[in-house]
Design brief:
The complex is a heterodimer of chains A (139) and B (265). Chain A has 139 residues and is α+β, with helices and mostly antiparallel strands. Chain A is 31% helix and 18% strand. Chain B is globular and about 55 Å long.
Chain lengths: 139, 265
């Protein structure tokens, strides 16, 4: 079973640069969510894809795009972690850090985008397969 | 250019890169606050295996101390940018900037921004070593060479791994990156990406440039030409994908390539 903790290599990752950029384009990970309002059933799945505006001033400060890229890395990490995770009753994947981070991402997104949402569910995967289908969480 | 002027130039450029990175991180503070995405409450469970230093992580990476570190980082970068180079505080400032870059990386479980974090850290580490008082010129040269070799490798390896893929050689990957990725690629570029022959040509331009970059080390004029193309390449990547940090991190490293290319002739 994969441990829910950081390994030494991750801690020292910065000391071992990896220069493999855009090596190949595999299946693109997608994060989708759906939510339930009071006394209603779950809505349709919605693709999480924040709008990014490109301006020349962003050459110097582009926190929105950099945040978005960090979120994408987080989603890819969730897929990788879910592939390595061997679940059992006492240690569900919903307790994994990667899972909790994406759960929190959707929770924050809903607080802004759909304040009337009461509970939500998310799924992460590619256009072909669902790697992770979440439990139902409270906003 | 003398070795001191090169070190000064690298120091100022990396200070600018770190200054901008720090402002961006501070702008994003609500996302790593206690009720944010990268909440320390969630992340701290990952450090249970590092018992001896767990308390250190708690004191450094929890929201408030971490935000304070980012603020100090911003000030340190500003001081480095404005103060004369190679002063008594340089080593302290540079070491702190390297350390805080590492803290940011582990707060984001590896790196925050991939390649640009690697390059920023590498340049800061080498400058810290080069700034040790009473350092011999040999040691400073070695630091510059290390930056130059890693910079050449960063571009060469990126090219080599692409060259090995048939889908890069026929332009397919580039077309997919422009048309299908989650990056918000401008519509004009997406329109151009529909032309297969243009993707094929652009792919080979990238492959040839990246795989031949180490030639820059052989000759001063070649170095200037390669560095100019590389800067345009980073600007292009910003236009297409919004990758702004790479330009500043790599711009800080290129003077080392220029310096070492002079040494070869």
């Amino acid at each position: 079973m994969k441990k829910n903790s950081m390994d030494l290599l991750t801690l020292l990752k910065l000391f071992f640069p990896s220069w493999r950029f855009f090596e190949e384009l595999g299946a693109i990970p997608q994060l989708q969510y759906r939510y339930k309002q009071k006394n209603e059933t779950m809505g349709d799945w919605i693709l999480w894809q924040p709008i990014q505006i490109r301006q020349w001033s962003h050459l110097f400060l582009n926190s929105t795009t950099n945040l978005y890229m960090a979120c994408n890395s987080m989603i890819e990490r969730l897929i990788n972690d879910s592939n390595e995770w061997t679940s059992n009753n006492s240690n569900s994947f919903s307790g994994a850090v990667s899972y909790k981070l994406v759960e929190q991402l959707i929770r924050l997104h809903l607080k802004d985008a759909s304040p009337q949402a009461q509970t939500f569910q998310f799924r992460v995967g590619t256009s072909q397969i669902d790697a992770v289908l979440s439990l139902e969480h409270k906003v | 250019m003398t070795i001191i002027s090169i070190i000064t130039l690298i120091e100022k450029l990396i200070a600018l890169a770190v200054l901008l990175q720090s402002i961006e991180m501070i702008q994003l503070q609500k996302f790593f606050a206690d009720d944010g995405i990268w909440s320390w409450t969630i992340l701290k469970s990952e450090y249970i295996d590092f018992k001896p230093i767990q308390l250190c992580f708690q004191k450094l990476l929890a929201f408030k101390p971490f935000l304070r570190i980012l603020q100090f980082r911003l000030w340190a970068a500003m001081i480095l940018l404005l103060l004369p180079s190679q002063n008594a505080f340089s080593i302290v400032l540079l070491s702190f900037l390297a350390f805080s870059t590492w803290l940011i990386a582990i707060r984001w479980r590896g790196t925050f921004n991939g390649g640009s974090d690697y390059m920023t850290f590498l340049v800061l580490m080498m400058l810290s070593i080069a700034s040790v008082p009473q350092n011999s010129e040999k040691m400073i040269r070695a630091c510059l060479w290390y930056i130059a070799i890693q910079t050449c490798l960063s571009i060469f390896v990126a090219g080599l791994v692409k060259l090995r893929k048939a889908q890069w050689r026929n332009g397919q990957v580039l077309q997919d990156i422009l048309l299908k990725t989650n990056y918000s690629v401008p519509l004009f570029a997406k329109h151009l990406a529909l032309k297969k022959w243009l993707c094929f040509l652009s792919s080979w331009t990238v492959l040839i440039f990246e795989c031949s970059f180490p030639l820059a080390i052989l000759n001063k004029k070649l170095a200037l030409a390669y560095i100019s193309i590389a800067l345009l390449f980073h600007l292009n990547n910003f236009y297409l994908f919004g990758l702004n940090r790479f330009l500043f991190a790599w711009a800080a490293a290129y003077p080392a390539v220029y310096f070492c290319s002079r040494a070869v002739i």
